[in-house]
Design goal:
Chain lengths: ~110, ~100, ~625, ~475
């Protein structure tokens, strides 16, 4: 029963919207919204390789932080030992950061 | 509560989709995403089992897998970028000059 | 006699010295080093031999352990040498003949390039063979076994810039590997069965009190071991079906052929069978096979030798044939007779090759006997020594070959192997015929030399002539010690020879008649009426061609083994570097093969997706295997 | 604070990892012409780690909540890995300069990979094993593509990465099933659960997927398909490292998993590995016969050798595992040696890797070709070399456990293999050289590596007892 309702609901909602909304499609309305400025090129263009490098670096540093969550949850139990361990962990991350920085990967050329 | 089997079947389906993706897709990025799908299906299986056993160790493992996958993603993207620089394509079938 | 362990080591030292610094040494020094180490080994062998004679027979068994080579759980192999009558005789023979060949080589190889390299290889060859002979367990024996194979490859392919030489070297190595495959399996099976590889320990288990005495007579594990080891012997000793490498082996320098054919390498298989005689005595099935293969090879190779024209090729086939005799003797239980023939054969075959080398040297490497003739007056020393060897191998009465061949025939008949004896007699006729054909065509008759070769024919220098003379003496008179040799070997070969049967006098006569017949026929055909030979060739056209092409065995092997292996590799797994070549090959093959290979070639298409598919298919394969309950 | 954090147990790994980090940190502050110093720093770190490992030999302890086990087995493999990595760095020093990619990240990556391999051999927990494996994999993906601007190196990295990640996912999925069935990732607990429950479906699925994951790592057929392409395209020192280090590490972990965690399924994995061994040897050897690129040829040869190693595993007895350990060392020596010659001879841009490029150089470069011949003879399995003894042990072990058919095929295979190894020797010594034999200089560090490998190959052949003793003592920790 539940599954029928679940399947029906989106269909009904979309159909209702389609039937009820005013049909006023024209060119300006279909254009991508860029804060009121006229769009100059197609939105689907190639991004600079720089974005990828930033993305790669972000992924790494971002995901490493998930280790902070379990650590924080039982921090009280781990006490000083846990604190030092986390310092070592973050230290290694910071080493990586220094490396990336010195290598110039953060520069926007 | 959703039974264990549902998770396992979903995991198996995701895994198969991922494996088929690697085999059928030609875009390196897509192939790589398919591999990620496989890894995550394994993660899902792990989590399901961890809940079944009422343990956290399975969840910890998933943390590790996620981190490893992130590192892999970084390296993979870097390799794909280098490929693009060399060959101006990310089509896997066009990077096949090494063969018998 | 404690120092006998140095016998295999000294040539190794010579190899290292010449191999490492030989390039910077003058030729004299290289030659001295190489010959001296072998001479020292010879002296030590003689001393060990003498020392063994001084002790009572039951004490003639000395083991010299060097170190424990491998020890892991119940897998123990020691690096230790064994001195007993058999190894003493063999060491004496190998070093003795080897030394003469070394000395001869100094003169023969003097002019060529890479003098030091040649002697380094030669010393390594000696060392490997001596290691094989002195080894006290199967594994160590295998080291020497492979070592002689490797050295023969290096020496046969010594003139590497000649394609035929390097091909021959490769052929020798690969064919030997096929035999070694059996040998290694035999060793592994022996280890599985006896839990040891030590000769004495194995023999103990084979003895009357051992647990394996009961198996005697049936085709069981013991027979498999003996059989597999014998496969190795057919490779190393050039017996049917693995003899094909030996005739090509003449591509090496002639003294090397002498060494390979006379003292080292090809005798290894015979030695192995005799060394393991307790095993072969318990496995009559395999012994029968050994005897049959041996006598068949003897006859078969002799027929091929009848029509060949290349002096070294004839000698090569005669070696195959004579080794066949030795196996026949060992197969019928005449182990001592086998070793006896091995030793007399070493004398006259070394002499024949060195003599052939001397002829070739005089004629600037001409090897076709139809383009020789009448050399008698130019090369008297070579002529007389060659004659000595020829009469010996033909079994002319009172020469060494006569005694040893007669002994083999007596053993065959008296042990009831009448067929083997009769074929042996027939082969003796053939042997005498083809050897004297060679002899007459080379030294007698009219001169058929190319004119530019006639000048400059000269006798070899003393360093080459002296070994010839010494070997000639041995060939003629080396057969008189048999009674003593037999007694000396008794602790190893076991059985005392039964009193000679009533037919033995008749057999002596028959042997003599056989050799006389052969010689007479050769004389009639090639000296008296040379036209007969051509007429016979004409009359027997088909048969002659069959023999001349050596029964087409090389071609057959190429078809059967070499091509298919290459083809499988080419079509199924290899996408060519030069695709046109492969595509062409594939287009030329049948449709079915193309489909199949097209399917299998998917394996290395270069597409990562395809590779992932293979991995996935493999995964599914394993899952299905488990699912089916495998 | 947890009680069993014995940091000393992983001291060698800490040293290698720290050295790797130090190299990366020092890299921006090192002038380009002095990058070699960081390579030597890496060697020093590996030596220090080796000494640290030696200090622990003979001790046995479990650390980190039963994840790491310090025992003679892990010590044995640590030494092997450290040696392999030192050799790799030695042959890379000149190579990187020659190829114009002298970045010190190379050394750091080798060290990280070494850390991962070490953990693979020491782990007694599926999670740590997986992380070790991934550490190796990710480092080697980068190494394979280290010549960034070379399309071939790049393609090699792409294939290695895609397929490696693919097989990793399969392996992880397998681990998930083992965990799901047993509720633990520790080997001993898995083994307990297995003996209590018997081989249920999840166990079988887990085992199958595990075998696939490792099959990829150690290049068993049909999971070997990546090897020829990746080995051919990767920079030669990396190929050497790939063919030796990760493969040995794969075997180290595989042996540990199968014997410590899944001993009660030995018939299940024994059967499959037996079939796979036959397939692997045959495919490797048959395909190698017609190769004309020496890197590709050695790649197929490494596939075939994985097959021989599997024979020891299939034997399932003590001698078998000792033989695997023994052969892993010998294989490392001879393969590293052979690749060193390839690295030196290939010349700038690796232009001389075709077999015909080796024509007639035998007597012009006696040292190089002499060493290469020795390694090839050892790969064939000629007596007096380590390769021979290794094969004897492997085959003897299989015979002992009555796998006679398998041994027959293995011996036949090694007889066939003589053909293509020998062809290289024939080409070097017995063919006419090209019009002009190019001249190469032999860098000192690479020559040192070459001599050490050659000595090792000979020594293990002439006096195998010492190494075999060590191997069989190390095996006791696993059984």
């Amino acid at each position: 029963m539940f599954i029928f309702v679940a399947l029906l609901l989106p269909v009904v909602a979309l159909l209702a919207g389609r039937l009820l909304r005013p049909q006023m499609g024209h060119d300006t309305k279909l254009r991508p919204y860029e804060c009121g400025v006229e769009p100059e090129t197609d939105a689907r263009e190639r991004y600079s390789v720089r974005y990828y490098i930033i993305a790669i670096l972000f992924v790494i540093f971002d995901v490493e932080t998930i280790f902070l969550f379990p650590w924080a949850v039982i921090y009280d139990k781990l006490a000083l030992f846990g604190f030092i361990e986390m310092l070592v962990f973050l230290g290694i991350l910071i080493f990586g950061y220094i490396y990336v920085w010195k290598k110039g990967a953060l520069e926007w050329v | 509560m959703v039974p264990l089997n549902y998770y396992l079947i979903l995991g198996a389906l995701l895994f198969s989709v991922g494996a088929l993706g690697v085999i059928l897709k030609r875009n390196l990025i897509t192939m790589f995403m398919s591999v990620e799908l496989m890894l995550n299906s394994a993660n899902l299986t792990f989590l399901a089992f961890a809940r079944e056993w009422n343990q956290v160790s399975g969840q910890v493992l998933v943390f590790f897998v996620m981190v490893v996958a992130a590192a892999e993603a970084a390296v993979g993207l870097a390799i794909v970028i280098a490929t693009y620089k060399n060959r101006k394509t990310v089509n896997a079938d066009e990077t096949a000059s090494l063969r018998d | 006699m404690d120092s006998f362990w140095l016998i295999p080591i000294l040539p190794l030292v010579g190899f290292l010295a010449n191999g490492l610094v030989g390039k910077r040494l003058p030729k004299q020094a290289v030659a001295w080093i190489a010959c001296l180490v072998v001479a020292a080994s010879l002296l030590l062998s003689a001393r060990a031999f003498y020392a063994l004679m001084q002790v009572p027979p039951e004490e003639r068994h000395v083991i010299h352990p060097l170190f424990t080579w491998v020890e892991s759980g119940d897998f123990v192999a020691r690096f230790e040498f064994l001195l007993d009558p058999l190894s003493a005789v063999m060491m004496l023979l190998v070093t003795g003949v080897g030394l003469l060949i070394h000395v001869y080589s100094v003169g023969y190889m003097w002019a060529g390039e890479g003098f030091y390299r040649y002697f380094a290889y030669l010393n390594l060859f000696m060392s490997s063979m001596l290691l094989l002979v002195a080894a006290n367990n199967l594994l160590l024996m295998f080291v020497g076994w492979e070592g002689v194979g490797l050295c023969s490859y290096l020496l046969i392919g010594y003139w590497y810039f000649k394609k035929s030489a390097s091909d021959a070297g490769k052929k020798a190595f690969v064919v030997n590997r096929v035999g070694d495959f059996g040998f290694l399996l035999g060793i592994l099976l022996a280890f599985l069965t006896f839990q040891t590889l030590d000769f004495q320990a194995i023999f103990q288990q084979l003895g009357p009190e051992g647990e394996f005495a009961a198996e005697s007579g049936k085709w069981g594990t013991l027979s498999w071991i003996a059989f597999l080891l014998f496969i190795g012997a057919t490779g190393k000793s050039a017996q049917v079906p693995l003899y094909v490498w030996l005739p090509d082996a003449m591509e090496g320098p002639t003294p090397v052929s002498a060494l390979i054919h006379a003292a080292t390498m090809v005798t290894a298989g015979v030695y192995m069978v005799v060394r393991l005689n307790p095993l072969y005595s318990l496995t009559p099935g395999v012994s029968g096979l050994v005897a049959t293969v041996g006598i068949f090879t003897a006859f078969y190779a002799a027929t091929i030798a009848l029509v060949q024209r290349d002096i070294k090729r004839i000698l090569a086939y005669s070696t195959i044939s004579q080794i066949g005799y030795m196996f026949a003797a060992a197969g019928v239980g005449g182990y001592a007779a086998s070793i006896f023939h091995l030793s007399t054969h070493a004398y006259f075959k070394a002499l024949l090759f060195l003599g052939a080398g001397s002829v070739m040297r005089a004629l600037q490497n001409e090897t076709d006997i139809l383009r020789m003739g009448g050399l008698r007056k130019y090369l008297p020393v070579t002529y007389w020594t060659f004659l000595a060897a020829t009469v010996a191998i033909s079994g002319v009465p009172l020469t060494s070959g006569f005694f040893s061949k007669d002994e083999i025939l007596v053993r065959s008949f008296s042990s009831g192997h009448t067929v083997i004896g009769i074929v042996g007699l027939a082969t003796a006729v053939l042997t005498a015929f083809y050897m004297f054909r060679l002899f007459f065509l080379t030294f007698h008759g009219e001169q058929r030399l190319a004119p530019e070769l006639r000048r400059g024919i000269h006798e070899p220098p003393p360093s080459m002539a002296v070994p010839l003379v010494l070997l000639a003496l041995l060939s003629l008179f080396g057969g008189y010690g048999y009674g003593y040799l037999e007694g000396f070997l008794e602790p190893v070969t076991g059985e005392p020879l039964p009193a000679r049967g009533e037919h033995s006098e008749a057999l002596v006569l028959l042997t003599a008649v056989a050799s006389g017949l052969g010689i007479l026929a050769a004389y009639l055909f090639y000296v008296r009426n040379p036209t007969w030979a051509a007429a016979a060739q004409q009359a027997l056209g088909g048969a002659h061609r069959l023999l001349w092409r050596k029964y087409y065995v090389d071609e057959l092997y190429d078809r059967l083994f070499v091509h298919p292996l290459k083809r499988v590799s080419d079509h199924f797994l290899w996408r060519g570097v030069d695709e046109r070549v492969v595509d062409g090959a594939v287009n030329g093959t049948a449709g079915l093969v193309r489909d199949l290979s097209g399917f299998l070639r998917q394996m290395q298409t270069g597409y990562a997706r395809a590779y992932a598919t293979w991995i996935l298919l493999g995964t599914v394969g394993i899952l299905v295997y488990y699912w089916m309950g495998g | 604070m947890p009680t069993d954090l014995h940091y000393l147990a992983i001291l060698p790994e800490i040293i290698t990892a720290a050295t790797g980090i130090a190299i990366m940190l020092l890299d921006p502050f090192t002038a380009p012409q002095h990058k070699g110093r960081l390579g030597w720093l890496g060697v020093a770190g590996l030596l220090a780690a080796g000494v640290a490992g030696a200090a622990q030999s003979g001790r046995t302890m479990t650390a980190f909540g039963g994840m790491v086990q310090l025992d003679s087995y892990s010590v044995f493999f640590r030494w092997l890995f450290f040696g392999v990595s030192i050799g790799t760095i030695l042959i890379s020093l000149q190579y990187l300069k020659r190829e114009g990619v002298h970045h010190s990240e190379f050394y750091a990556l080798v060290l990280f990979a070494t850390t991962g391999m070490s953990f693979m051999a020491a782990s007694v927990d599926l999670i740590l094993m997986f992380i070790g494996l991934e550490t190796v994999a990710i480092s080697t993906y980068v190494l394979a593509g280290f010549k960034r601007s070379d399309p071939r190196s790049n393609e090699s990295a792409v294939k290695y990465f895609i397929l490696g990640a693919f097989s990793t996912a399969v392996l992880l999925y397998g681990i998930a099933f083992l965990y799901g069935q047993t509720g633990s990732t520790r080997f001993d607990r898995v083994a307990e659960a297995l003996s209590a429950q018997g081989p249920s479906a999840f166990f079988l699925v887990g085992l199958a997927l595990l075998l696939v994951g490792f099959g990829f790592k150690v290049a068993m057929a049909p999971f070997h398909v990546w090897t020829p392409d990746v080995y051919e395209g990767a920079p030669s020192p990396v190929t050497a490292f790939l063919a030796v280090g990760p493969k040995a590490a794969g075997f180290a972990a595989l042996v540990r998993v199968l014997y410590s965690a899944l001993p009660d399924m030995e018939n299940h994995w024994g059967d499959v590995l037996g079939l796979v061994a036959v397939l692997t040897m045959t495919v490797g050897n048959v395909a190698a016969i017609t190769q004309s690129n020496i890197k590709r040829l050695l790649a197929y040869s490494s596939v075939a050798h994985a097959g021989y190693l599997l024979v020891g595993l299939v034997a399932r007895n003590e001698l078998g595992i000792s033989a695997v350990l023994y052969y892993a060392v010998v294989y490392a020596l001879m393969n590293l040696g052979a690749f060193t010659v390839v690295v030196i001879w290939s010349g700038a841009g690796e232009t001389r890797v075709h077999l015909s490029d080796y024509a007639g150089i035998g007597f012009r470069y006696p040292f190089l070709t002499g060493c290469l011949s020795l390694f090839l003879l050892s790969l064939i399995g000629i007596p007096a070399t380590g390769g021979f003894m290794g094969k004897v042990f492997l085959f003897a072990a299989a015979v002992q456990s009555h796998h006679v058919g398998l041994v027959v095929i293995a011996v036949l295979n090694s007889a066939v293999s003589a053909y293509y190894y020998l062809r290289i020797i024939v080409i070097m010594y017995m063919q006419e050289p090209a019009a002009q034999v190019p001249s190469v200089e032999i860098p000192v560090p690479a020559a040192v590596a070459l001599v050490l490998a050659a000595l090792g190959t000979l020594l293990t052949g002439l006096y195998p007892s010492a190494l075999l003793d060590l191997a069989s003592r190390s095996v006791l920790a696993v059984r």
